[in-house]
Design brief:
The protein is an alpha+beta fold. It contains 19 helices and 41 strands.
Length: about 800
């Protein structure tokens, strides 16, 4: 299956060239969307934000780097780049950026500084240039930029990003229409955080509730409201998905920054009221992009995203990135620019996205521009989590002029470097929870998104074992636009509760802006499921198991964990399906293992967080070895991988006579040739990960023992021996001389060593042990022995323990003499 991954990024470009729905110039420059609304009445003083995206200098090398930083055993594994370093290595060349900038400025346009990663240049266009363009606003925008660039420079430009109303991203929060009410209480009356805290007597000093249970606990008003509006509280979700075990261990996400992607404003007082009630104290700050997203309480999407994240990761630092959506009369690049700001500022380890657009309606140019940006995020060690959509398997069924009930998936969850999150209905919290795929049916609020993307399948899915059922016939060409025999990216990767009927409890006081209830209420949609997984990844990053090394692109780690201990890390969702309209033959149904409705399933957070961090294929350090010629050796290698992984050990450079057990990693045998050897051992698993160690192995010849003389007779004989370390063997440190049958040592042996060394001698029967104060190349020993009359030949066995290397005892015979 590894050959499948060779399609690479270049092939992705070829694939998307075949499905471009936008205008293409002779140079290949495309507009991100030609579905831009007309703007005849736009004020001339207004300026449109547009972004020119640039091609990376080496797309194939960038794709390899994405895989390397995500693959255990790779020298680059989790060695991430900063944005400037990324730009220097993979962004457009400085000369290209300078050329594009000069050309735009020369035509009266106002380009800003290029992004830190060198992949985009912001551009402002006067509304006067577009005000009378009518239906051709998109073509006019593209023509402005195209006309400004010399032909030699156009090939370096990926796309011109200018979204319009019809290509606007959609918030993916939903309500259950049967539960419109909200509980009336002082906290629901729009009080600020200080008043709310005063009314309920709560404090934000701890994330442990009054009940003593770990993690955030609701105040009385929220608990009462949950029953009234059929909401699921954060402690229930935490218990169902195993977060409480992480809280009990002291892990609440401290030290981790999470970015929340928003295309609408929110009222900070809503978040403050939620935190006052739940006794959380997450720091929340805001970053405005392209002027921000306006003011007010928003549509409730942002409040859901922020509060649900805080409710499950109460001590993270939240950065809310807010930019304009493409809903004004002028085209704009706000949705792309918010992603670009998150990636190029590189302040957050985890990114939560609850906005999306049907992949086909977005268009291939915008998808490609996003994809390169998400590759940059992966190389920088950022985890991007996105909702998979609320229209089930028919993501383009949006009700607009381009609506379609055909099979489709949602962007950016469909992007290969993004973790897509589908939806379930939480029937019982358990634990373990009882769940089915969320599908309200025709006329209902929605269903969890999923299906087959137009992107090629990445190595994270491609390299999974067969029992997970990830590689499906439904995802093979021609189901999507990839070469025959290859697989398509499958969505979602994972899931969480998303049914509005079992929605999450949030505080939102926006009834003055939209005709919805205010106060405590239940919200669902995959928009609510994405922050669950963002919180889990933040807790994993904060855990001791990750040792301050962020997960980065989490897709490979998720599938590796599933391959190692699927039942221990995930709750398999096996019932239901996400054919919302019923017009697609019931696709896609849930089943054992991975499926296109629930992905790998929902998390058991505590063991999964450990396995996400502990997924490095590693080989323990091997100390240098020193052995004797012909002596038996036994060295054990210790490889570590996810539980259940099958490992294969290899070695090169071993001394002749020593072999390796490929399955157990044991080095055994008897060295046949003295010398110094440089040995490299390695371990691989079934998914291509590799780890290795190199160490020195010295095989020494046997000690040289010379019988200088045997003097005396009868019971008063004296043996004079010279013992020298063998070739390549360590110097002598401890020597044991054992006399043959017929001789016994007397109490006064004598050893002569180097003048700076001392020796201690001990006699025990026929054995004499000599221990030197420091290693020495040779020793002369004089032994007083008594002849027991059982033979005239003298054969002495000499055992040597050399140096401090802990080698095995060596033995050598002593020839006869008189």
């Amino acid at each position: 299956m590894a050959a499948q991954s060779s399609i690479g990024r270049g092939a992705r470009r070829a694939v998307h060239a075949a499905i471009v729905a936008c205008s293409v110039s002779a140079s290949g420059l495309v507009l991100a969307s030609t579905a831009v609304a007309s703007a005849p009445s736009a004020p001339v003083a207004q300026r449109a934000h547009i972004t020119v995206t640039l091609r990376p200098r080496d797309p194939a090398a960038l794709a390899r780097e994405v895989r390397a930083v995500s693959t255990p055993g790779s020298p680059s594994y989790r060695h991430y780049l900063a944005p400037r370093a990324f730009g220097a290595r993979y962004g457009a060349r400085p000369a290209t950026i300078a050329s594009v900038t000069r050309a735009l400025r020369a035509h009266g346009l106002a380009p800003g500084p290029a992004s830190a990663g060198g992949l985009s240049i912001p551009l402002t266009v006067p509304a006067a240039a577009l005000a009378h363009a009518g239906a051709a606003v998109g073509d006019t925008t593209r023509a402005l930029v195209l006309g400004a660039l010399p032909r030699s420079t156009r090939a370096s430009v990926e796309a011109v990003i200018a979204f319009g109303r019809r290509s606007a991203a959609r918030p993916l929060a939903l309500r259950d229409p049967t539960h419109r009410g909200a509980l009336t209480s002082p906290l629901n009356a729009g009080l600020g955080a200080r008043s709310a805290a005063a009314v309920h007597g709560v404090s934000a000093s701890t994330a442990t509730g009054a009940s003593g249970a770990p993690g955030p606990q609701p105040c009385a008003a929220a608990s009462a409201a949950a029953a009234a509006v059929h909401a699921t509280t954060e402690p229930t979700i935490a218990s169902a998905y195993g977060f409480d075990a992480l809280y009990a261990a002291g892990d609440e996400g401290q030290g981790v920054t999470v970015a929340v992607y928003e295309l609408e404003p929110n009222d900070p007082a809503d978040v403050a009221a939620f935190q006052a009630c739940y006794r959380t104290h997450a720091a929340v700050s805001y970053v405005r992009v392209d002027g921000g997203a306006g003011s007010g309480a928003g549509s409730d999407e942002a409040a859901l995203d922020i509060e649900n994240l805080i409710g499950l990761a109460p001590r993270v630092h939240v950065l809310v990135y807010q930019g304009p959506n493409a809903r004004s009369g002028l085209p704009g690049s706000g949705p792309y620019d918010v992603f670009s700001a998150i990636v190029n500022q590189d302040r957050a380890r985890v990114v939560s996205v609850s906005w999306g657009q049907c992949e086909a309606q977005l268009g291939s140019a915008a998808q490609q521009a996003e994809s390169v940006l998400f590759e940059q995020a992966a190389v920088q060690g950022q985890t991007i989590v996105a909702a998979a959509g609320d229209n089930g398997s028919e993501d383009c069924d949006t009700g607009g002029p381009n609506s379609s009930t055909g099979l489709a998936v949602d962007d950016p969850a469909s992007q290969p470097e993004v973790v897509g999150v589908g939806g379930t209905t939480l029937l019982a919290a358990g634990p373990p929870p009882s769940e089915t795929v969320w599908n309200s049916g025709p006329g209902g609020p929605g269903a969890g998104g999923g299906g087959v993307s137009d992107w090629p399948m990445g190595p994270d899915q491609l390299d999974t074992p067969g029992f997970l059922h990830v590689r499906r016939a439904a995802a093979r060409a021609p189901a999507c636009n990839v070469p025959r025999g290859h697989y398509c990216r499958e969505v979602p990767d994972v899931s969480a509760n998303a049914d509005p009927a079992t929605g999450y409890e949030v505080y939102w006081n926006g009834a003055d802006t939209v005709p919805e209830p205010s106060g405590w209420q239940a919200l669902g949609g995959t928009s609510a499921a994405a922050p669950v997984w963002a919180a889990l990844f933040a807790l994993a990053d904060a855990s001791p198991a990750c040792a301050s090394r962020p997960l980065g692109f989490a897709g490979p780690a998720l599938y590796r964990a599933a391959a190692g201990d699927y039942r221990g890390d995930f709750h398999d969702v096996t019932s239901g399906g996400n054919d919302l309209t019923g017009g697609n033959g019931g696709r896609w149904p849930a089943g054992p293992g991975y499926d296109l409705a629930s992905g790998l399933g929902t998390p058991d957070a505590a063991p999964l967080a450990r396995d996400l961090c502990d997924d490095s294929l590693a080989l323990s350090r091997v100390r240098g070895q020193s052995s004797a010629l012909g002596a038996a050796v036994a060295v054990a290698l210790h490889g570590r991988d996810v539980r259940g992984a099958r490992l294969r050990y290899t070695a090169r450079g071993l001394p002749p006579g020593v072999r390796i057990g490929h399955r157990n990693g044991r080095l055994t045998g008897r060295p046949r040739r003295p010398g110094r050897y440089r040995v490299h051992v390695a371990v691989r698993d079934g998914r291509g990960a590799r780890a290795g160690r190199t160490f020195a192995w010295t095989v020494g010849a046997l000690p040289r023992v010379t019988l200088a003389r045997v003097t005396g007779a009868g019971g008063n004989r004296r043996l004079a021996l010279t013992i020298a370390s063998g070739r390549h063997a360590p110097w002598l440190r401890r020597i044991r001389v054992r006399l043959p049958a017929g001789f016994a040592a007397r109490r006064h042996p004598h050893a002569i060593v180097h003048a700076r060394h001392r020796a201690s001698l001990r006699v025990a029967g026929s054995a004499v042990t000599i221990t030197l104060s420091a290693p020495c190349p040779s020793v002369r020993v004089s032994l007083r022995v008594r002849d027991l009359g059982r033979g005239s030949d003298v054969r002495v066995a000499v055992g040597v323990r050399a140096g401090s290397t802990g080698t095995s005892v060596l033995r050598a015979p002593l020839g006869s003499g008189r």
